[in-house]
Design goal:
This protein is α/β, with parallel strands linked by helices. The strands form seven sheets. It has a seven-stranded mixed β-sheet with strand order 3-4-2-5-6-1-12, with helices on both faces. The chain has a seven-stranded mixed β-sheet with strand order 16-15-14-17-18-20-19. The longest helix is centred in the first third of the chain and has 18 residues. Among the domains are: about 120 residues, Rossmann fold (3-Layer(aba) Sandwich), CATH 3.40.50; about 220 residues, 2-Layer Sandwich (Nucleotidyltransferase, domain 5).
Length: about 550
């Protein structure tokens, strides 16, 4: 408890304690949801986090380190003492209900000072704290973000939340030029979710000092654990580190950034032994991503979950592409008209029509291709500029196809070409087709790229913005994308990926119209990952009258 300090009276110290959450917690003997006093001896790393009132904050942390309960208490303090209206989000409404009922309400009930601050009639969606409100919301319903003003948005478990809805919540801060945003979560993949904000932060790490060699260091795996002895050790002299050594740390920034950032790992927690860390690493029921995310509090990307641009550039060849065979133009119309051209010899040209066309209409670039190569075809997305695509489709009948992505597969085909009334349409299993494309690019030489690595660097860089994330089976009905262990993988992006999709569309068109190729009907599987294509020979035919478009539908 607080005591008289130096020349300051108890009343002066007590009054000052109201200015800092950690001192306020100590002054009022705040209890956690389980009814025990909030203690700082084992949670010294939380003192600075609690007292940090920076406008932008981010925390990378594993579960069960005391962060979530600290943020609940801190949010109640901020609403009352700092006079802030707050939006507090969790991934789903169910998550929200569970947290409010099992933690928020119990914390309030355990603490008289909080009971006096919060009105009795409040619900799981809202708490009135003094003269201000805390709104508790899920992120999987966009309407949740509407009609609520806020001074501070707190986003719990950012990586499991819907990023588009989080963005909508940010608009609720528009009325306040000093609007605050705090993000914290156990991370998932590098370049995704909370890691995006972490990369913009000052990246504070908990620095401890070895009492033997006096070397300051950050606790890291495996440098600070003797795996054989199952002891925490100094990364340099290998002397054993005590629990107090791990307690007595200090936060230091390791970068410059707009966000105030904190990284917590279980290795910082005095109650978690080195033996438990080693057991978690060796657990046959858990993969490496689990260990990095849930133990070390770090993002993780396995080599199978993303494609490095450097791998793609290994497919570059200096051979001259004679542009023989039918030209396939893959086109993505989101934020420009990005295209990739290929034929049976490989990929040979790419660009953004908005940047290279001399006319006001960027589609003139695509028209030029179609006129230059009379048998060429276009496979385009339909979401970016449907009017422009429909116009192009009318100008070049039988040669422009709209590609629709499908999430929940209802057939065994990776690709379904429309017939009869659905001519000009192709439907693709998005996740499995991206996986197939990535596997083809990793198989060096299978997709040949005409030119030097430097010429294709911009194109290849956008493939690095695609990543594959494991999701809970309950989140989707697409059973066919699960691996042998019941996991499901969904391809997401963390930056521009237009060229990646333009290649995918080109590959889809090439498999049917590229010169003797066959229809994709399935894939061979190994550990749930496509390893090859199962094909079925077929005759190429028109989607409209064979008489009208005979010249455009003959095999070359």
């Amino acid at each position: 408890m607080l005591e008289k300090s130096g020349n300051y009276s108890f009343d002066e110290v007590s009054q000052a304690a109201e200015l800092y959450p950690s001192l306020w917690i100590e002054k009022h003997n705040i209890k956690t949801s389980n009814g025990l006093p909030f203690e700082f001896d084992n949670h010294r790393f939380m003192i600075d986090v609690l007292n940090d009132m920076s406008q932008f904050q981010v925390g990378l942390k594993p579960p069960q380190v005391g962060w979530s309960e600290s943020m609940i208490i801190k949010s109640l303090y901020v609403a009352d003492k700092k006079e802030k209206d707050i939006i507090y989000t969790l991934p789903t409404a169910t998550d929200r209900d569970d947290m409010v009922n099992s933690k928020v309400n119990r914390i309030i009930a355990q603490n008289p000072v909080l009971k006096a601050m919060v009105k009795d009639h409040d619900t799981v969606e809202q708490k009135s704290v003094g003269n201000h409100l805390i709104h508790y919301r899920g992120t999987f319903a966009a309407k949740q973000a509407m009609m609520i003003s806020s001074d501070l948005n707190i986003h719990d478990e950012t990586d499991a939340s819907d990023p588009s809805v989080i963005t909508q919540y940010e608009t609720r801060l528009a009325a306040n030029p000093n609007g605050m945003r705090w993000y914290f979560s156990h991370p998932s993949l590098a370049g995704h979710g909370v890691d995006v904000y972490w990369q913009q932060s000052n990246k504070r790490e908990w620095h401890i000092t070895c009492k033997s060699c006096k070397e300051e260091q950050i606790l890291t795996w495996p440098d600070n654990i003797d795996i054989q002895r199952r002891k925490y050790v100094c990364s340099l002299c290998k002397s054993e580190l005590s629990d107090d050594d791990r307690r007595d740390g200090i936060w230091k920034a390791t970068a410059q950034g707009e966000f105030s950032g904190y990284h917590i790992s279980q290795m910082m927690c005095p109650w978690i032994t080195a033996s438990k860390i080693v057991d978690a690493y060796n657990d046959p029921q858990k993969d490496k991503q689990y260990f990095y995310n849930y133990v070390l509090g770090l993002p993780y990307v396995g080599s199978e979950d993303k494609i490095e641009p450097s791998i793609i550039l290994k497919n570059c060849v200096d051979e001259v592409n004679e542009q023989e065979g039918r030209i396939i133009i893959g086109m993505d119309t989101g934020h420009g008209i990005h295209f990739t051209l290929m034929n049976k010899q490989g990929v040979f040209f790419y660009g953004n029509a908005n940047e290279i066309t001399a006319s006001k209409d960027p589609y003139d670039t695509i028209r030029g291709f179609l006129k230059r190569w009379p048998r060429s075809i276009v496979i385009s997305d339909q979401g970016g500029d449907l009017i422009g695509i429909r116009k192009l489709q009318a100008e070049f009948p039988g040669r422009v196809f709209l590609c629709f992505y499908r999430k929940d597969r209802k057939s065994v085909d990776l690709v379904d070409w429309g017939e009869n009334e659905e001519y000009g349409k192709v439907t693709v299993d998005r996740n499995r087709m991206i996986t197939l494309m990535v596997e083809q690019l990793r198989d060096i030489g299978r997709v040949r790229i005409q030119g030097t690595p430097e010429e294709w660097r911009e194109w290849a860089s956008q493939f690095g913005n695609l990543y594959r994330e494991k999701v809970l089976v309950k989140e989707t009905k697409d059973k066919d994308s699960r691996d042998l262990y019941g996991n499901e993988y969904v391809w997401k992006r963390n930056g521009p990926d237009h060229y990646a999709h333009s290649l995918l569309y080109a590959i889809v068109g090439f498999q049917r119209y590229g010169g003797g190729m066959a229809k994709i009907v399935g894939e061979s599987m190994l550990d749930g990952i496509p390893k090859g294509v199962m094909v079925e020979s077929q005759d190429v035919h028109s989607f409209v009258s064979p008489e009208a478009f005979r010249e455009n539908t003959l095999e070359i």
